[in-house]
Design brief:
Four Helix Bundle (Hemerythrin (Met), subunit A), 7 helices, mainly alpha, 2 domains, binds heme C, single chain
């Protein structure tokens, strides 16, 4: 266990320093490779995560960059607008790593609706960010982030 962790960390670190992309092809804490569809949607969600982290820093003031809030909010909205299509292919039973649970395709209508809501909230966040008005950005950010956990609880390993 200990060794295995150290090893995947090492692989991750080496891959990162070589080509950033190859580290992403090794699933977290697991040496099993993702199949292409899993890699693709995983990476769409990674855009969401990076945009989220940087918006959070800008809001907290641990980073200050004029005009970046809008750009990150647009990245988030753009990624959110690709999410549903990225999950559309039913990959149940495919060989390789994924955190996507079978329930996604068993309850596709519910899952798709949640991604539609996420897309709409992220678009509203981008609009709020364009306004530069923190009294609009804060609540829009909170609402967008409200989509993550409940969906992960139900649909992600
Ligand atoms: C409607 C469902 C849904 C919503 C909403 C959603 N996610 Fe996900 N997310 C998933 C699923 C399912 C996966 C697993 C994908 C795979 O492995 O194929 C995932 C994967 C990820 C990953 C990839 C790394 C990992 O741990 O698997 C990150 C990062 C992530 N989501 C962040 C977010 C953030 C941040 C939000 C909110 C702003 C969000 N997600 C909203 C369903 C969702």
């Amino acid at each position: 266990m200990q060794l295995n962790r150290a090893r995947s960390f090492f692989i991750g670190a080496v891959a990162c320093s070589a080509i950033a992309v190859s580290s992403a092809s090794v699933a977290d804490g697991d040496d099993e490779k993702r199949f292409p569809e899993s890699q693709y949607r995983h990476d769409v969600m990674e855009f969401v995560k990076y945009a989220y982290s940087n918006i959070a820093q800008l809001m907290k003031g641990t980073a200050e960059h004029e005009g970046h809030m809008v750009k990150h909010a647009q990245i988030m909205a753009s990624a959110a607008s690709m999410a549903k299509a990225a999950f559309e292919k039913d990959t149940r039973g495919m060989e390789g790593a994924t955190e996507a649970r079978d329930e996604i395709w068993e309850n596709w209508d519910d899952f798709a609706q949640r991604l539609d809501e996420f897309e709409a909230d992220a678009a509203a966040l981008a609009t709020a960010a364009e306004s530069g008005d923190m009294s609009k950005i804060g609540p829009a950010f909170k609402k967008t982030m409200g989509n993550c956990k409940s969906c992960h609880d139900d649909y992600r390993e």
